[in-house]
Design brief:
The chain is an alpha/beta fold. The chain has helices at residues 17-24, 39-43, 70-75, 94-104, 121-132, 200-208, 216-231, 237-251, 264-275, 282-290, 294-301, 303-317, 337-342, 368-386, 397-411; strands at residues 4-9, 29-33, 48-53, 67-68, 80-84, 87-91, 113-117, 137-141, 160-163, 188-191, 211-213, 253-258, 278-281, 323-326, 345-351, 389-392.
């Protein structure tokens, strides 16, 4: 008999679940958007094999289960349903996934005060995980509860922070539910959001040198345990890690920065041809959206106005991943552009001898080598600040592109 496997929910939109489950061996995994009135009929289908469950049905499905795993009952949410001989078994694999992500990042809750942002279903999962992992105290922050965003100072001694709210999720990024200034004793930050790769909260933790994890490892690990329930088989951690890192690479942008005329656009074209990724040239996009080339905007309206437009377009483009993005030479002069590029990107600085830089049609490079030298003196620390890797454009453009692609494939890890 044909068996149904997939994810059920009300509005699913984009989901990594089919990709993850296909990689885990379930190639027939599908997405099923169900209205409340369709839920029972779907679960009663004789051909049902197993499904994952997401919002808003994680509690609703309890009424249709014949057997509920104790962990799911304790959390009050089911995210995995398996049909065994006509009986429906309900499990919660989110707790396992969250614990896996915490362990993977080296975030230890044992004996530590843990603050959880949000009071929804994922908050209950995080609370159960904190209890299992031996947290000394667990505090739930909600908008209007006893512990809320207006009295975070009461919990300045928290050593672990877990965000279970959607604040900072694509497309509303980068945004953060709190400032980490409120938690000076933090040792670890977990954000269950997996898109973008680095939320504003995680980037702040990174800046402070705090251990951190996003939600991608949690997503894959919970799917791995669900697959084990689906098919009564064991899956090694190495499989989980391989999927996590592959998805990370697929969702990460390749961002090229560097002086005007350093070869970013042409190198980007070579990488696009090599990888099959979409190329987004920010200067061309500015021209398309404004009807004027960057040089014309700078000449007629001033550099500050051009930079404002540039930041606006970067904020739009960099919300999603999987692209090659070539930037204007001066994008590094605005610090607010860094989190836009970094949230879903690995940033490559293209370095080239000043005498080799093209100045044609570039008003800010019109003073020749002396002007370029002055420009580089100002921008050099900015390029170093933004770049994850520096690539010398000292051979062929194709060679520079190949070195970037090789580095990206080898070193983009979650």
């Amino acid at each position: 008999m044909y068996r149904v496997y997939g994810l059920i929910g009300r509005k699913l939109g984009h989901s990594y679940s089919p990709q993850i489950h296909a990689a885990l061996g379930c190639r027939g995994y599908r997405l099923y958007e169900l209205s409340p009135g369709e839920l029972e009929g779907f679960l009663r289908r004789p051909e049902l094999g197993a499904v994952n469950v997401t919002i808003p049905y994680k509690r609703e499905v309890f009424r249709y289960m014949d057997v509920v795993d104790p962990a799911a009952r304790d959390i009050g949410a089911i995210n995995t349903v398996v049909n065994r001989g006509g009986k429906l078994y309900g499990y919660n694999t989110d707790k396992y996934g969250l614990e896996y992500a915490l362990r993977r990042a080296g975030i230890d809750l044992a004996g530590r005060k843990t603050v959880i942002l949000g009071s929804g279903g994922t908050s209950r999962t995080a609370t159960a995980a904190a209890r299992s992992l031996g947290a000394a105290e667990t505090v739930i922050i909600s908008r209007s509860g006893e512990n809320n965003y207006g009295n975070l100072y009461l919990h300045a001694d928290a050593r672990v922070l877990i965000n279970t709210t959607p604040v900072g999720m694509y497309p509303d990024c980068p945004a953060s539910p709190v400032s980490l200034d409120a938690f000076p004793a933090l040792e670890g930050v977990m954000d269950v959001i997996f898109n973008p790769m680095r939320t504003a909260l995680l980037m702040e933790a990174e800046k402070r040198g705090v251990r951190r994890s996003g939600g991608l490892a949690m997503l894959v690990a919970q799917a791995r345990l669900a697959e084990e329930h689906f098919f009564h088989r064991s899956i090694d951690d190495s499989v989980t890690e391989g999927i996590v890192n592959r998805l990370c690479r697929e969702a990460t942008n390749i961002v090229l920065i560097g002086m005007p005329g350093s070869g970013k656009t042409t190198i980007g074209k070579f990488i696009a041809a090599r990888s099959g990724r979409e190329l987004v040239d920010i200067d061309k996009l500015i021209t398309s959206r404004t009807g004027s080339r960057p040089g014309e905007i700078i000449t007629s309206r001033g550099e500050e106005e051009f930079r404002r437009i540039e930041t606006e377009i970067l904020a739009d483009v960099c919300r999603s991943g999987g692209r090659i993005i070539t930037t204007g030479g001066g994008c590094v002069t605005r610090e607010e552009n860094y989190p836009l590029l970094h949230q879903s990107g690995r940033i490559y600085r293209i370095e080239r001898e000043l005498s080799q830089l093209s100045t044609r049609g570039r008003p800010l490079s019109a003073d020749g080598i002396e002007g370029l030298s002055r420009m580089l003196a100002v921008r050099e620390p900015m390029y170093r600040r933004f770049a994850d890797v520096t690539i010398a454009n000292d051979s062929t453009l194709d060679d520079a592109a190949e070195r970037i692609w090789s580095d990206f494939c080898e070193n983009t890890r979650y």
